[in-house]
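Comment thread on ticket #2218

A.B. wrote:
> Attaching the input chain for the structure job we discussed in standup.
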Amino acid sequence: MDILDLPGIRKVNRGKVREIFEVDKDHLLIVATDRISAFDVVLPNTIPHKGKVLNQLSSFWFEQVKHIVPNHVISARVDDFPTQLQPFREQLRGRSMLVRRCQPLPVECVARGYLAGSGWKEYRESGTICGIKLPPGLREADELPEPIFTPATKAVTGHDENIPFERVIEILGPDTAHAIRDFTLKIYGWARGYARERGIIICDTKFEFGYQDSHLLLIDEVLTPDSSRFWPASEYQPGGPQPSFDKQFIRDYLETLDWDKTAPGPELPEEIVTASSHRYTEAYRRLTGKELEI
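C.D. wrote:
> Ran it. Output below, let me know if you need it in another format.
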């Protein structure tokens, strides 16, 4: 599935991967498509079953971590959806969830347990990530002494920008800033222990929070291959890039091309598409112990 329209249901946002529809003034429908983006460009290919992995894995994690923080999910079962959505049940099955409407916070909440990606780049330049001083001599993919909270501003276009925690306090106020930092590290700490027992290292991950009235809720997606770096624990060897279950596989392929990372993106070969689909579904199987509902 690439683009989704539900006649009679107002679409309020089209993201790189998700379509968001207004059900009523208090509820939204979030639908995960099979679109894939890399370097902030939506590529022409879709990845079979990707949207269902994102949706079903998020649904799994929302349930698993609700003892830490409440979330916005009402149901991911189409049978529970309102009457006006039932004509679209086959399009929505397995790739959508009905959620409470919230006011999202304008900060991305990133937890890092290993040195990779933009964190590795910043560390090489300054020995820090988001102003947090790290020990000297760390290698790419090394585990950090303890997980760290590295927030970022949410960019409408282009790349998110890492910011220090002090800036989060300025944006959100001290109470909310400390709450999202604590929740981020608690969720990550619990989830990475769970995943490690199932053969997956969660290198880092991104969360979003929002307010429904005065209630702070976990929203959007949780611990998916699009919002996290998942590494196979059996192949972990610090000192360089790691094999992954996430879209880093596609980024690595794109880095071999003569492409300036602006739209339009290049067409992916069939073998890259197939291998990517397998990585997404394998991550789901390992983490949940179940086969994907296709």
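A.B. wrote:
> Thanks. Noting for the ticket: The first strand starts at residue 10 and ends at 14.
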